From TrEMBL, chain A:
Catalyzes the transfer of a geranylgeranyl moiety from geranylgeranyl diphosphate to both cysteines of proteins with the C-terminal sequence -XXCC, -XCXC and -CCXX. It catalyses: geranylgeranyl diphosphate + L-cysteinyl-[protein] = S-geranylgeranyl-L-cysteinyl-[protein] + diphosphate. It comes from Saccharomyces pastorianus. Binds 1 zinc ion per subunit. Its cofactor is Zn(2+). GO terms for cellular component: Rab-protein geranylgeranyltransferase complex. InterPro entries: PGGT1B-like (IPR045089), Prenyltrans (IPR001330), Ptb1 (IPR026873), Terpenoid_cyclase/PrenylTrfase (IPR008930). Belongs to the protein prenyltransferase subunit beta family. Coiled coil: none annotated. This is Geranylgeranyl transferase type-2 subunit beta. One of its GO terms (molecular function) is metal ion binding.
From TrEMBL, chain B:
One of its GO terms (cellular component) is Rab-protein geranylgeranyltransferase complex. Pfam families: PPTA. Heterodimer of an alpha and a beta subunit. GO terms for molecular function: Rab geranylgeranyltransferase activity. Keywords: Prenyltransferase, Repeat, Transferase. This is Geranylgeranyl transferase type-2 subunit alpha. The keyword Repeat applies. It comes from the Eukaryota. The lineage of its organism: Eukaryota, Fungi, Dikarya, Ascomycota, Saccharomycotina. Catalyzes the transfer of a geranyl-geranyl moiety from geranyl-geranyl pyrophosphate to proteins having the C-terminal -XCC or -XCXC, where both cysteines may become modified. Acts on YPT1 and SEC4. Catalyzes the transfer of a geranyl-geranyl moiety from geranyl-geranyl pyrophosphate to cysteines occuring in specific C-terminal amino acid sequences. Its EC number is 2.5.1.60. It catalyses: geranylgeranyl diphosphate + L-cysteinyl-[protein] = S-geranylgeranyl-L-cysteinyl-[protein] + diphosphate. Belongs to the protein prenyltransferase subunit alpha family. It is an enzyme of class 2 (transferase).
Length: 325, 327
């Protein structure tokens, strides 16, 4: 352990800034399928670090638009790739963060909403694209994107909520579909979806206690959080678990001091960025979820982040609350 | 990126990597462009399929290419022999061996099986063997367990029979080889619930008693591990157990568990001078249920909570909150 005791803010900003200049690395090209998500992770991390201007806004927006898949009417991760719900949410989040949803225009926006709604299945679940993979991740991405666009409807929300509730498990966790094992990332997607739908009240007091219990048992003696029992800690769960606890108003059920120490120890003190575990290779995914976790715990003067949308609270404050008046 | 050690890059190493990457990038981008061009030209030939194989071998995460591959197959599916589909399954298998955690590959395998020309239980039996093997290599693989439930569901549907008893035995085998296999404990809950629901158990009371012995044994085997405790928490509170046993039997079972937990905790205190935190957590739950069933007078909950604050400081605030509710 390097025993880092402070957030290397400047280093992380420089690390994120440098990401798009790594085109001479083979890995850059192998990760095209994550590029739009990566932009969202990078931008959100910068926002939390109060440095959103590090990215050139116009360039990012035009990159987002270049990912538009005109065949299916939604966002792909990279130009010429295929639209998917996961990347569609990232595109919408970036535009909303820049207060630039208008660049979509009426027609594109209508197609995008149709794409999302069109992927809802009869049981209320969502498939990620036309090939039928079902996962509560897609329920979340669908509801979150529609919510940001102000386009939720009872026809979409009600069956989706019903499906999410079926994914609640005996142990207080949520799975990727009914009868699947509890996983902390699915706790976030399910609780986030319920919060967006304004239906957290579908869970009773005992269930909320059980959820809080299962989530706080994710903290390990070294301070980090895992995603399932008997698994290793990983910085990304600083987001999945903490945001879930925040949504059910039990954020302080884990130990802040120990988790903060764990996240800080995952920083690369030379080149910046945060890794999954101490001494491992950093990436933008763990960097955003590390700083976002710190923000939820009120670390330093980080910019507050919304646990439901994983976007700056100042931005999400403008999202229309469902049910619409 | 998960589980990859940070590497010290000297200037020389960086230079070497850059030289090697230059060629790799050139080839990769060239291949990507040519495959995407074929796609845009709506070419659905065997050669195009081969090209997607080549690209997916280099990058199994490239979902647009998996999509194109499916479009190629769909466009020629009427002409495809069974042997084609078997080859496709073999290709996916190779991919899974290298990348068992890539969602797109699992997704593609299911798609192939869904479109396989003959819908016999045979192909799904093979899948069961495949997933068995995978779970031998990685007993907690999240995709693997998810996939297993789908495979078993398909076999049951085609053969119009229930595999619950076999699957129950499977969870026992998995737990016996590693008691911390929470995925198997989770699956056990699913199966037991179903077996009771479908009336697949002849002597239900006996079944529950056998399960009680099994979990007491598990508790003694590894009292530190939370897997078994989460299972116990479910077991003592769920409707199946509450309704199968009459009140007297239910209370007797709870007390039996309680005595054993106290025993484990006392052993631990003697051995290490510390309380076992999971014993305390479960005693709390047990006390509440016993009280609800009018079978308990002497309550130690507050004392347990105070002890837990000390013994399990990471979750101190939870205990504080419970204490507030208790008072």
């Amino acid at each position: 352990m390097s025993g880092l005791s402070a957030l290397l803010r400047e280093k992380h900003i420089r690390y994120i800034e440098s990401l798009d200049s790594k085109k001479h690395n083979f890995e850059y090209w192998l990760t095209e399928h994550l590029r739009l998500n990566g932009m969202y992770w990078g931008l959100t991390a910068l926002c939390v670090l109060d440095s959103s201007e590090t990215f050139a806004k116009d360039e990012v927006i035009s990159f987002v638009l270049s990912c538009w898949d005109d065949k299916y009417g939604a966002f792909a991760p990279f130009p010429r790739h295929d639209a998917h719900l996961l990347t569609t949410l990232s595109g919408v989040q970036i535009l909303a963060t820049y207060d630039a949803l208008d660049v979509l225009g009426e027609e594109r926006k209508a197609r995008l909403v149709a794409f999302i709604r069109g992927n809802q299945l009869e049981d209320g679940s969502f498939q990620g694209d036309r090939f039928g993979e079902v996962d509560t991740r897609f329920v979340y991405t669908a509801l979150s994107a529609l919510s940001i666009l102000g386009e939720l409807t009872p026809e979409v929300v009600d069956p989706a909520v019903k499906f999410v509730l079926k994914c609640y498990n005996f142990d207080g966790g949520f799975g990727l579909c009914p009868s699947a094992e509890s996983h902390a990332a699915q706790a976030f997607t399910c609780l986030g979806a319920l919060a967006i739908a304004n239906r957290l009240n579908a869970l009773n007091h005992d269930q909320l206690e059980e959820i809080g219990w299962w989530l706080c048992e994710r903290q390990l003696p070294e301070g980090g959080l895992n995603g399932r029992p008997s698994k290793l800690p990983d910085v990304c769960y600083s987001w999945w678990v903490l945001s879930s606890l925040a949504i059910i108003d039990k954020l302080d059920w884990i130990n802040y001091e120990k988790l903060t120490e764990f996240i800080l120890n995952c920083q690369d003190e030379k080149k910046g960025g945060i890794s999954d575990r101490p001494e491992n290779e950093v990436d933008v995914f763990h960097t955003v979820f590390g700083v976002a976790g710190l923000s939820l715990m009120g670390y330093g003067d980080l910019v507050p982040i919304d646990p439901v949308y994983c976007m700056p609270s100042s931005i999400t404050a403008k999202i229309k609350k469902y049910p619409y008046k | 990126m998960h589980g990859i050690k940070r590497k010290e890059w000297t200037k020389e190493l960086l230079r070497q990597k850059r030289v090697q990457d230059e060629k790799k990038i050139f080839d990769y981008r060239h291949l990507t462009d040519s495959v995407l061009n074929l796609r845009d030209e709506k070419v659905y030939s065997t050669d195009a399929l081969k090209k997607t194989s080549e690209l997916l071998e280099r990058n199994p995460e490239f979902n647009a290419i998996w999509n194109y591959r499916r479009d190629i197959i769909s466009n020629s599916s009427s002409e495809l022999e069974v042997s084609f589909w078997d080859e496709e399954l073999a290709f996916v298998m190779m991919q899974l061996k290298h990348y068992p955690k890539v969602y797109w590959i699992w997704n593609h395998r299911l798609w192939v099986l869904k479109h396989y020309p003959t819908n016999s239980s045979m192909i799904w039996q093979t899948e069961l063997a495949v997933v068995n093997k995978l779970l031998e290599l990685d007993a907690r693989n999240y995709h693997g367990w998810h996939y297993r439930r789908i495979v078993v569901g398909n076999i049951e549907e085609i053969t119009n029979s229930s595999l619950d008893k076999e699957e129950f035995e499977y969870t026992t085998t998995k737990i016996n080889s590693n008691i911390s296999n929470y995925s198997a404990w989770h699956q056990r809950v699913q199966i037991i619930s179903r077996m009771f629901q479908k009336g697949e158990i002849d002597n239900q009371k006996e079944y529950i008693q056998t399960e009680v012995s099994y979990i007491i044994n598990a508790m003694f085997t590894d009292a530190e591990d939370q897997s078994v405790w989460f299972y116990i928490k479910w077991f003592i509170k769920n409707d199946i157990v509450c309704k199968t046993l009459d009140k007297q039997e239910y209370v007797k079972m709870l007390k039996e568990l309680r005595e054993n937990i106290l025993l484990i905790n006392n052993d631990e205190i003697e051995f290490s001078g510390k309380q076992n935190i999971w014993c305390l957590k479960m005693l709390l739950v047990l006390e509440d249920i016993l009280e609800e069933n009018g079978a308990f007078t002497e309550k130690n909950s507050e004392a347990y909570l105070v002890q837990l604050m000390d013994a399990d400081p990471l979750r101190k605030n939870r205990y504080q909150s419970l204490l507030k509710n208790h008072r």
